[in-house]
Specification:
Chain lengths: 311, 311
């Protein structure tokens, strides 16, 4: 496998399906995830270990995660809302979990029914769980700072709040920090400013950024994040997700378009665009009636397009 | 009127309608252009003085241009394919024309039935027309270098070809140069590289950039152009246009999304978003069945959004 310049972390099976009304059959999820891995995506967030009573889509989280872990050459991530979710994930053998920590108090209470500081305490409990395991069973913990660029409930989110959470997460000893524009409020100038500030605060522990395309700025924000030194970007096949508060507005950054943009820019992603479009067909067949976005799937690559090559 | 940081040149009535099958009634065009001007757009490209036998949409170019010139506080531009078009535009009183010059030989022959050098000769004839007029009737000439980032017919377009045309256009004494990604091939790294090179070649005569959103990279390319020093960007309301070679793929950069992005970044455009969305309603009513794009029109502005303010 060739080296990559930017890691794309596919979050469609988690963030995308979380916001899709239709239950995707477990076998279709497996086939889709296998196709995503076969296309060369180096990391896939495959499910959420949330209480299935809250989100029925993830009733099959254990089966999906267990299957995904059998796939070669791909890092499997699970989202967990709390310690209990982390315990379930670890039991299945997941080696990388993501814990959302809202920068907005209002969003934190709405999303995980805890204050921001209570959720930081939950992070500490998950770190303790990690540290209690024998070295060969330890998992990586990403603290995902959500609503970092603004919140539909609270409105503006002070940058100082994001910096404080990032610093605390590192102090608690999360392995890495991701900064997320959960509701599609970010703009490129803000992305460069905030991510540079976070980087100044926690250095290389700032690993990833997560943007939504609610207002069409997703790819521009990805470029800004790269300029700020981020080397891992979340995206979702077909932009799957959509924000329930903005019907018709696409959700996550669209994986296909992101891969095309980065490869065009000479940044290697390790992803094969033709195989990626094959994976999209599996998704479309499995979720009839869902909203699928993406320009590349319609327009194709330009004449003479070549993937980024090793220098 | 407050100062602006980035000028948005609305090209929907020209580039958008040129690629729309439905004829927009003349009165609707006037009402739409008036609404665009009322929203604060500082420049509008209102028509093409092309042979109406070639593009029926512009059979009413004289009437539309004459009406547009009565609107206050807005610069009116017309596209002309050749000297004859320039003569017609000048007769109506248009003070700013745009002449396309393809960087791709294949596209040049297909678009204006001339070689690149023959079209540069046409520019020289239009410059002579301008210089023959009394000072108070002279018009501004923009040389619009099309297919500058690649071509659906030719494939790759060497940067040296773009630089040569830019230098020649300035030598011939065009007032300004615009660089266009006619078919949606550009990526942000290429935009920064090429526009910086053009700027090094012709300095401040590089005025504008024109991007299509065929592969979803329109806004990211706009940010890259600004980083390269460009201060005027073309866009089209609702992304109107669409490329006939890529059905379903949106055409020009979407004006509403561009205004939102720039204002969010603290860059003043002079455009009122609410009035812009009013203008969109006029467009939608006048072209039933056409493809309308845009995230902002669906998602609205974020909670607490404020326009960029004078520093």
């Amino acid at each position: 496998m060739s080296a990559i310049d930017i890691q794309i972390s596919e979050v469609g099976p988690r963030d995308g399906l979380q916001n899709t009304r239709i239950f995707m059959p477990t076998d279709a999820k497996k086939a889709w995830i296998a196709a995503l891995a076969a296309a060369g995506l180096p990391e896939i967030e495959v499910c959420s270990f949330v209480n299935p009573k809250m989100i029925a889509q993830f009733a099959d989280a254990v089966e999906v995660a267990a299957y995904s872990l059998t796939l070669p050459d791909v890092s499997i991530v699970a989202l967990v809302p709390n310690l209990k979710g982390a315990e379930r994930a670890v039991e299945v053998g997941v080696r990388r979990i993501s814990l959302p920590i809202s920068a907005s108090e209002a969003h934190s209470r709405s999303n995980v029914r805890k204050s921001v500081d209570e959720q930081l305490d939950e992070l500490a409990r998950i770190v303790a769980l990690r540290n209690s395991l024998p070295t060969d069973r330890r998992f990586q913990i990403t603290a995902g700072i959500s609503t970092a660029f603004g919140c539909t409930l609270q409105g503006e989110v002070p940058e100082a709040d994001v910096l404080r959470i990032a610093a605390r997460a590192v102090e608690i000893d999360a392995d890495s920090v991701s900064v997320a524009d959960t509701v599609g409020y970010a703009n490129p100038a803000q992305v460069r400013r905030l991510l540079s500030a976070v980087r100044a605060e926690i250095g290389g522990r700032l690993e990833a950024a997560h943007f939504h395309n609610t207002r069409g700025l997703g790819l521009a924000n990805c470029v800004a994040a790269i300029e700020a030194g981020v080397r891992s970007l979340d995206s979702s096949m077909a932009g799957l997700g959509g924000c329930p508060y903005a019907p018709g507005a696409s959700g996550n950054v669209i994986t296909e378009d992101l891969v095309f943009m980065l490869e065009s820019m000479g940044l290697r992603t390790g992803v094969d665009i033709a195989k990626l479009l094959d994976a999209r067909k599996i998704l479309e067949a499995a979720l009839p009636g869902a909203d699928f976005y993406g320009h590349l799937a319609k327009a194709g690559v330009p004449k003479g397009f070549a993937r980024a090559e090793a220098a």
